[in-house]
Amino acid sequence: MPERSTSSVSAETPSAPPTGSLRPLSVHLLGPVDPLVAARAVAAREAAQKIPRVLADLAASRSVGRSLRLTDHDVRTALSSSAGRSPSTPFAWSARTARRGLGLAAVRSLVAGEARTPTEGARQAITGAIRSVREGSRASSAMDRWLAGLPGPGLAVVQAEAVTWATRLWSALDWSAFGPAPVIGRDRWWNSPHSSLLAVRSRAEVRSVVVDRDENPFSVHLVVLGGSRRPSVRAELSVVAMVEAVQAPRSLPPGRIVGWWPDSGHTVTVEVDRAALDVGVEAVAHTLASAEADPVVSEGVARAAA
Amino acid sequence: MVLVTPHAPAPDEVLALLRMGSDRRPRFDPELAGGLRAWLEDGAAELVAARGEDAPPLHLGPRLLWRDQDVAADAPPGDRREGPAASPYPIELVESCLVRALFRQLVTCGRIGDPLADALDALRVEPGRGAMVRHVGEMPGEAKAALSASLSSHVAQLVNLTPRFAAGWLPRTNDRVAIPLAGGRVVLCGTFDLLVGAPVPGTATLCALGVATGGRWAPARAALHYLALLEMVRSGVPPFRVALIHTAAGRYGVEDVLEEHLRAVVSHIVGRLALLARTSA
To answer: Tens of pLDDT along A200-229?
Structure first.
């Protein structure tokens, strides 16, 4: 199966933003690429070229003929298993599971100038979703159909959750500091070119481009995190780095993945080098092993990230 | 704190108090957040030493932190994690959840229809609330009628007292804050019922509004100060002003957040952590 991406970060080279008066999260995301990362970019690129084969071999030995479509949820669940895994609950739409999709749509509208406030953006997203169902659009999603069936008070809670989610993200970044317009909330699937059974998702809420001292562009990715701070988070972010790296040269090489907990304001940054890619491969291997032990993980259900 | 018990509150009185003099924001020492966090970390380290490094994370919200001040009859603003042990659904907890759902609806849509029906419709889309919805659905008719009447009373106060914030104020409900201490072994957590204002680094620009559905005023106010502290640690500055709406009493209060409030809350938390450490040892 050929590589496929649902979106790509523009290769346009931005001018480095001034970091003196930016919000902390903007500085973390858009600051200059670590010189060490830039120096090791060639080694990382070479390592990335070998990853598809390694993952395909891993999948072949684990999948037993089943499709393995790994999401960030699968990776997080597998990595937490060593610290005492809680039984996975079946996915269901709720105000919490819908807030990311609607919140991202709201932020996208704000950045595009199509909405003036998160409230307006979220309302537009919900209205559009319901309209698509009522008009019988083939593009309507499962979430759209769920929304269309809710009574007014239920929709109010869904909108309130989406507004809070969107406001936190909207308020945390300096949107004028982005060079090219950021890509907001386009998850990317990497489909293994060697195994039709394997695909891995890279989830990031905001993607942009920064340059190193020699003006070489790198992609940077902001991942909104939930739950407790956990030792596995660097490995989770390294999977995002790995998926981005194996998509090069069709998209820019990744320079940095920033994880951000809105609840606490904490961030964790993975500067992408060969070691980070190795950690990503290890995390996927661990997830595949977990999928073998627990087939529920590999049912191919793409969960909405809370 | 400006504390008012109006018989017939003037429209937008709370809003006027929140906005009054808002161009004169209180200043906070930029080093204060780090100092308060260090104080909290010291308290948490003592507790972790007593509980053991491998003990599961301890999540503390205002209910546990102010337990000795008779807050059992009410879930103060910000507290969502700890429930009373006696009954899974005491009527005070049910009312608190239903009123807060209606509060979100009021802030989001500006109107409420049938309070009980609307609140239950709202809870149905919140994860983990299905059992409570079933519990209310199975209540005897008389109890349900009493609950409905009580809700109507709370809603009347909400409608009277809750300001209508324009979308440009960025009103957001249920904004959760969780501050990990001691490497995540102790987590101070809480939820703002409502935050308004655009965050600006280094400047206190937010207002917080809390809803109390019963219980005493003092612990509900302390819970708001606690949330202000969590915001200070999260972002470096607290809300500059907080408001509390007490829907059972029909009272409200508005006050500036002062450094002394934050210090008092930290002192209380550190004392509570020391007490927990002694009981854990």
So the answer is: 999 999 999 998 888 889 999 999 999 888
Max Cα distance, chain B (Å) = 57
Residue B60, beta-bridge partner list:
B188
Q: State the DSSP H helix or E strand holding residue A96, giving kind and residue range, or none if neither.
A: helix A95-112
- Rounded-to-integer distance, Cα B223 and Cα B226, Å: 5
Cβ–Cβ gap A156/B108 under 8 Å? yes
| Of A41-55, B99-113, B155-169, the least confident | A41-55
8 Å CB contact of B108 and A117: no
- Strand duo A198-202 + A68-70: pairing: parallel
**Is B190 in contact with B226 (CB distance < 8 Å)?**
yes
Q: What is the DSSP letter of B128?
A: T
* pLDDT tens figures, A116-152: 999 999 999 999 999 999 999 888 999 999 999 999 9
Give A24's contacts in chain B (Cβ within 8 Å): 201
* Partner-chain contact A154 B124, CB within 8 Å: yes
Element (H, E) at B132: helix B130-137
Question: Closest to A228 (Cβ–Cβ): which among B57, B122, B234?
Answer: B57
**pTM exceeds 0.80 for this model:** yes
Helix (H) or strand (E) holding B180: strand B172-181
Task: Specify whether the CB–CB gap between A236 and A76 falls below 8 A.
Answer: yes
List of residues 6+ apart from A162 with CB closer than 8 A: A98, A99, A102, A103, A106, A118, A122, A125, A126
Copy the structure tokens of residue B132: 């409570």
Closest CA to A158 of B128, B83, B105: B105
In this structure, the number of other CB atoms found within 10 A of the CB of residue B183 comes to: 14
pLDDT of residue B74: 42
Rounded to the nearest 10 degrees, the angle between the axes of helix A118-134 and helix A95-112 is: 110
For residue A303, give how far its alpha carbon lies from the nearest alpha carbon of chain B (Å).
15
B69-99 core/surface letters (b: 16 or more CB in 10 A; e: else): eebebbbbbbbbbbeeeeeebeebbbbbbbb
Report the 10 Å Cβ neighbour count for A122: 30
* Residue keyed to tokens 């039984």: A87
Token pair in block for residue A43 = 């080694």
Q: What is the C-alpha to C-alpha distance for residues A98 and A148, in angstroms, rounded to an integer?
A: 13
